[in-house]
Design brief:
The chain is mainly alpha-helical. The chain has helices at about 1-15, 15-35, 50-70, 75-80, 80-85, 90-110, 115-125, 130-155, 160-185, 195-200, 200-210, 215-240. The longest helix is centred in the middle third of the chain and has 26 residues, at about 130-155.
Length: about 240
């Protein structure tokens, strides 16, 4: 697994994919959060990073599939997956090597945003911020990205076309993030199954953990969804 992880990271950074992903995440967030009046945290009047944590899922919804779209699609297209299968590696070692390499890129993209926390704290009139809420939001944001990565790698294992993998990944990430919440708003589910439908969506658990209370049920949900999509990936590549 370590050899796959190392190879994938090497490819990300040797082709500047990793650097571009980190740069885009930071620059897009920076533009919306500090330059655009409607979304600027400087104009909100509150020492809060709520707008950052509301915006970031939208950016990650496209950024993570872009990072993962070539994970298996390029292997199938170029024929290198057949070579990969001859190595003394299990399907899970291959999958986890690719998966954890994406998590490293995501981690390095999120870490510099700690500067936003420092900035808000300095600009705050009291010099204090809601550290608990912000910490919970960061944990939720990382798990959110980790789920998107699991979904995207799974989608990449179904096609040899990276562009197709990207669009399918974006669609599934969007549906799992917003779909259940929107479905729960239908009149037929109101007052009966609406709450349970919301619980199936990522948005429900992301908002829950962003309140600053790290609930084990939210963590179990994220890990379960990740495991489900990686399990589907493992089953899929075994028949390739």
């Amino acid at each position: 697994m370590f050899s796959i992880w190392k190879k994938e990271l090497g490819q990300f950074f040797s082709s500047f994919t990793g650097y571009i992903a980190i740069f885009l995440f930071l620059i897009v967030n920076g533009i919306f959060l500090f330059l655009f009046p409607d979304s600027s945290i400087l104009d909100s009047g509150y020492a809060s990073l709520d707008k950052f944590f509301e915006l970031s899922p939208w950016i990650l919804l496209f950024l993570v599939p872009a990072l993962c779209m070539r994970a298996f699609a390029d292997e199938f297209r170029t024929g290198t997956f057949e070579i990969l299968k001859t190595r003394p590696l299990t399907s899970w070692q291959i999958i986890l090597g690719k998966y954890f390499s994406v998590l490293v890129i995501i981690f390095f993209a999120i870490i510099p945003t700690i500067l936003y926390v420092v900035t808000i704290k300095i600009l705050s009139t009291t010099g204090t911020i809601d550290s608990g809420g912000i910490s919970g939001s960061y944990i939720g944001l990382f798990f959110l990205a980790a789920v998107f990565a699991g979904i995207s790698i799974c989608c990449s294992s179904f096609t040899s076309n990276a562009i197709v993998a990207f669009f399918i990944s974006c669609l599934f990430c969007l549906l799992l993030y917003f779909g259940f919440n929107e479905l729960s708003k239908l009149e037929i589910f109101r007052g009966s199954a609406d709450y349970y439908l919301q619980m199936l969506g990522i948005d429900f658990h992301y908002k829950s953990i962003s309140r600053g209370v790290v609930d084990s049920r939210d963590i179990i949900y994220f890990i379960s969804v990740i495991f489900l999509f990686l399990l589907i990936t493992a089953k899929n590549i075994k028949v390739k």
